[in-house]
Amino acid sequence: MSGLPDLFRRAVGTVLVASFALLMGLPLADALGRAGGFHLPGSAELVQVLTLWLTFAGGLAAAAARQHLTLSTAAWIGDGLPGRAARWLASALSAGVAAVLAWAAWQVVQANRAEGRILEIGLPAWTLDLMMPLALAAMALVFAWHAARGWRGRLAGLLAIPLAFAPALMTSGQAAVAYVLAGLAALSLLAGTPIFVAMAGVALALFFAQGAPVAAVPAEVYRLVASPTLPAIPLLAGAGYVLAESGASARLVRCFRAWVGFLPGGMAVMAAAVCAVFTTFTGGSGVTIVALGGLLYPMLREDGYGEGFSLGLVTASGSLGLLLPPSLPVILYALVASGRDQAVSADRLFLAGLAPGLLLLALTAAYGILAGRRIRPPTPFHLREALAATWAAKWELLLPVLILGLFTSGRTTMLETAACALAYAIAAECFLARDIHPIRQLPGVLLKASALMGAVLMLLSVAMGLTAWLVDAQVPDALLAWTQAHVHSRLLFLLALNVLLLVLGSVLEIYSAIVVLAPIVAPLGATFGIHPVHLGVIFLANLELGFLLPPAGLNLFLASSRFGTPLPRLYRHVLPFLVILGGGLLLITYAPALSLALPRWLGKG
């Protein structure tokens, strides 16, 4: 958080780590106390407040560290004069939009103050809600600071803040100007404007064009944080970060290598499996490629795999596991879609995604076996090494078992399961494996996770505001009417849906894609008689493949940066995996039994 003064930086870090700890501790206390009939009064309210604080304080930390999610197309501009101009424009626009959001959030706080609601801990609710406008105002200053390296550029960035309020003074032509501003905010994505800023700018402009209060955008935060499922996302992300920062990756690689390394292509199978395990916890955020790429790529090359195959495998495997529990996008899709259809719950969606997720993993592994057979003969299998490697990785291997056991038992909620996962990961890596020092290193790990989750939750918050405008403007209804009038074949609709989601999944960040597109796609699928749970699997499988789709798939840019490989060259290496996984996607789309058989067999279809 180098963009903040040292004292303020430490204060924000303390708030984030404390919020993370309490967000984990409260559900754990409820889960443990339930057996003895004990319940913490007001814990649900406190969890909502902590999620709110984690969202905005984490968003401030992400702004200071330049970690807010952006389109990968911004990397094409380069570092010359056009790049500096684009970064100044993106930062200035971000400062203006954040300032307007701060003012809108202050209006929300004032409305909450008028309600006079008192939390069970004795504090007025509005005092804790002050985190919203304060963090957003600080974000505006941080964005202006990042506009340039010199004072003139930074002062020019600060001027964007009062200019952002200028449209509110207009008395005529309000709608036309608002639509122009919405278009500029959308186009600014190409210059590197954070996605949450662009979406917030579009939403603010559209509400302004209708004469509606812009406070509608931050007001959607309350509907989001009130969900009992949402706080599970940062907790599971925290568990993933703890694993990524420890030696868990090396232990898992050793374990899988010992068991499958003797097979033809065993190293490729190991790489795909380890990446899938990590992606289930990191949610396709790119952490898998960053954390494991430097470990797996040289191992593949050492075993005789070609450079192209190795790069393609690591890049493609970075999004495997997106459908497997406890994947964060699955939880989020269930959260968004459950508002329209109660059948789309997280447990049903996890059961439905199990076979399709394993299918995509198996297809990648099968291609690796084929390549391994041509490249190098199998290495000998040593039972002693396999058992020793399994014992060394026992704590990491037990984590998915713990989550699935709690999740399917029905004894804990999704939030309590996520809290148990984070507590277990901390205990395993800090006190059992002793890879992370609980005092010197763990707070830093949680701070990294907080910044990422702050960026994601900020994005979800403003995406909910944009979705609210789309619903108010009856955009889903208009799209539904057009589809019914022009598309009459279910097969054609599914094919068009695949193409649309693949393209959008390659340029949109996955969490914003879910929040914005799911409410539009769900009624369209219902019109053609597609089971809502099967539709959710199709939706997420397309986004998983979108990470690899040229020219702007996220995994392509991450791998290009991580391994120093030009993008056009990387496209060629990824193409075989894209074709193979595309075949799996078509099978998932047109064979609904693949998704629905297991939930129906378990009585949850």
Automatic annotation (TrEMBL):
<feature type="transmembrane region" description="Helical">
    <location>
        <begin position="187"/>
        <end position="209"/>
    </location>
</feature>
<feature type="transmembrane region" description="Helical">
    <location>
        <begin position="491"/>
        <end position="521"/>
    </location>
</feature>
<feature type="transmembrane region" description="Helical">
    <location>
        <begin position="533"/>
        <end position="554"/>
    </location>
</feature>
<feature type="transmembrane region" description="Helical">
    <location>
        <begin position="221"/>
        <end position="244"/>
    </location>
</feature>
<dbReference type="InterPro" id="IPR010656">
    <property type="entry name" value="DctM"/>
</dbReference>
<keyword id="KW-1133">Transmembrane helix</keyword>
<feature type="transmembrane region" description="Helical">
    <location>
        <begin position="391"/>
        <end position="408"/>
    </location>
</feature>
<feature type="transmembrane region" description="Helical">
    <location>
        <begin position="155"/>
        <end position="181"/>
    </location>
</feature>
<keyword id="KW-0813">Transport</keyword>
<feature type="domain" description="TRAP C4-dicarboxylate transport system permease DctM subunit">
    <location>
        <begin position="185"/>
        <end position="594"/>
    </location>
</feature>
<keyword id="KW-0997">Cell inner membrane</keyword>
<feature type="transmembrane region" description="Helical">
    <location>
        <begin position="309"/>
        <end position="337"/>
    </location>
</feature>
<feature type="transmembrane region" description="Helical">
    <location>
        <begin position="264"/>
        <end position="297"/>
    </location>
</feature>
<dbReference type="GO" id="GO:0005886">
    <property type="term" value="C:plasma membrane"/>
</dbReference>
<dbReference type="GO" id="GO:0022857">
    <property type="term" value="F:transmembrane transporter activity"/>
</dbReference>
<feature type="transmembrane region" description="Helical">
    <location>
        <begin position="445"/>
        <end position="471"/>
    </location>
</feature>
<dbReference type="Pfam" id="PF04290">
    <property type="entry name" value="DctQ"/>
</dbReference>
<feature type="transmembrane region" description="Helical">
    <location>
        <begin position="349"/>
        <end position="370"/>
    </location>
</feature>
<feature type="transmembrane region" description="Helical">
    <location>
        <begin position="86"/>
        <end position="106"/>
    </location>
</feature>
<feature type="transmembrane region" description="Helical">
    <location>
        <begin position="574"/>
        <end position="598"/>
    </location>
</feature>
<dbReference type="InterPro" id="IPR004681">
    <property type="entry name" value="TRAP_DctM"/>
</dbReference>
<feature type="transmembrane region" description="Helical">
    <location>
        <begin position="47"/>
        <end position="65"/>
    </location>
</feature>
<dbReference type="Pfam" id="PF06808">
    <property type="entry name" value="DctM"/>
</dbReference>
<protein>
    <recommendedName>
        <fullName>TRAP transporter large permease subunit</fullName>
    </recommendedName>
</protein>
<feature type="transmembrane region" description="Helical">
    <location>
        <begin position="126"/>
        <end position="148"/>
    </location>
</feature>
<keyword id="KW-0812">Transmembrane</keyword>
<keyword id="KW-0472">Membrane</keyword>
<feature type="domain" description="Tripartite ATP-independent periplasmic transporters DctQ component">
    <location>
        <begin position="23"/>
        <end position="152"/>
    </location>
</feature>
<dbReference type="InterPro" id="IPR055348">
    <property type="entry name" value="DctQ"/>
</dbReference>
<keyword id="KW-1003">Cell membrane</keyword>
